[in-house]
Amino acid sequence: MQVPEVGSSIIRVLHQHKLGKAAWPTIQQGLQRSFVHSLASYRIAQKASPFDRRATALAWHPAHPSTLAVASKGGDIMLWNFGVKDKPTFIKGIGAGGSITGLKFNLLNTDQFYTASMEGTTTLQDFRGNTVRVFARSDCCNIWFCSLDVSAKSRVVVTGDNVGHVTLLNTDGKELWNLRMHKKKATHVALNPCCDWLLATASVDQTVKLWDLRQVKGKDGFLYSLPHSHPVNAACFSPDGARLLTTDQRNEIRVYSASRWDRPMSLIPHPHRHFQHLTPIKATWHPRYNLIVVGRYPDPNFKSCVPYESRTVDVFDGSSGKLLCQLYDPASSGIISLNEFNPMGDTLASAMGYHVLVWSQEKVGPERESESQ
Predict the structure, then answer these.
(1) Which of these, 134, 130, 129, lies nearest to 117 by C-alpha position?
(2) What's the pTM value of the predicted model, to 2 decimals?
């Protein structure tokens, strides 16, 4: 394990905890500092360019830390185990108009996955290319689905469309309700991982709303409405369910806390402006630490912009909003829209245009080790 500095050695903190002199939060902070320090040695270990259109969604396999599913604007889906040399599983999409906007593994059967699509459907499919169940269908070329989430515990599927409707179904396909919760496109829906009756919805109408699924009766039945200055790309809960992370379409990331959902505890200025031909940038949480991960789209009008600023992957402290680390590879210098750490928290997958990048800690071999000494 790499240690950031002598004064904050995780070994020392663990020893103090054993002696009763350090609380568990101190250990967590020490582990987080050590992990952030290790990010300095992260490099792109794998790169794939499987699609003829840009990548639009990605999801890690819940049980296999080296297996990743990625979807494209053409509706293609790739299941990629980059830890082996076998050819990835590839499902061909319909091309134009088939963009996958949401992608989730079925935790009850990991050979299956849920998708929301601009084709106008929200479905459950398997990796042989079969459709297991159609949960929602628009039957109209002007309406499509933009967002998706699933709760294996409550056995519900929630999906949002481009005119602001949000539909809740059980995993047997029965529709529980369908309401217009926003005035415009519902860009993101997220179920709280600990209180899965709590739903967050984000929209182009510049709001994020929190709902209690046990008592939704109409469009005005939300618990909280969180106004933003710009349209919102994403609203996702932290792994412990205690915080909510929102990404707008311009230059702000917000963190809300369960102690007071109606007021942000942190506002993080950050350039990630919306562009029509770019997969919308969405900030995400690290699965084990209080860290925020997001791609940077340098903006000359942004207050802190410097000439020739790099298109990095930025890592922020979830409490203070402080920028802790930036990942960058000159050989892959495009705008990175999507970033997700695997469930173990040691490997990062990124979507950069047509390309899928896998970041991991660079291993120091015997020769490199002797050189450093």
Answers:
(1) 134
(2) 0.90
- Structure confidence at residue 364 as a pLDDT band (50, 70, 90): low
The greatest distance separating any two alpha carbons of the chain, rounded to the nearest whole angstrom, comes to: 67
Q: Is the dihedral of CA 207, 105, 337, 339 positive or negative?
A: positive
**How many whole angstroms separate alpha carbon 84 and alpha carbon 67?**
10
Residue that is written with structure tokens 């490997």 in the block: 347
The pLDDT mean for the chain works out to: 91
Q: Is the pLDDT of residue 1 over 60?
A: no
What is the tally of structural domains in the chain?
Answer: 1
Taking the CA atoms of 210, 215, 216 and 220 in sequence, report the sign of the dihedral they define.
Answer: negative
Number of Cα atoms under 13 Å in the Cβ half of residue 186: 30
Residues 6+ apart with CB under 8 A from 201: 147, 160, 166, 181, 182, 186, 188, 189, 190, 208, 209, 211, 235
Reduced to 3 states, what is the DSSP secondary structure of residue 178?
A: strand
- Is residue 29 one of the residues assigned to a domain? no
The C-alpha atoms of residue 309 and residue 101 are separated, in whole angstroms, by 29
Consecutive H or E run containing 233:
strand 232-237
Q: What interhelical angle do 24-38 and 10-18 show, nearest 10? A: 170
Domain with 57 in it:
45-372
Amino acid at 138: S
Dist CA 45 CA 48 (whole Å): 11
- 249 and 231 in contact (C-beta within 8 Å)? yes
Residue 284: inside a domain: yes
* Six-digit token string for 281: 């940038």
Residue 185 belongs to domain with CATH number: 2.130.10.10
pLDDT given for residue 27 in this prediction? 76
CA 290 – CA 242 distance, rounded (Å) = 11
**Inside any domain, residue 18:** no
Asked whether residue 192 is domain-assigned, the answer is yes
Residue 181 burial (10 A CB sphere; 0-12, 13-18, 19+): buried
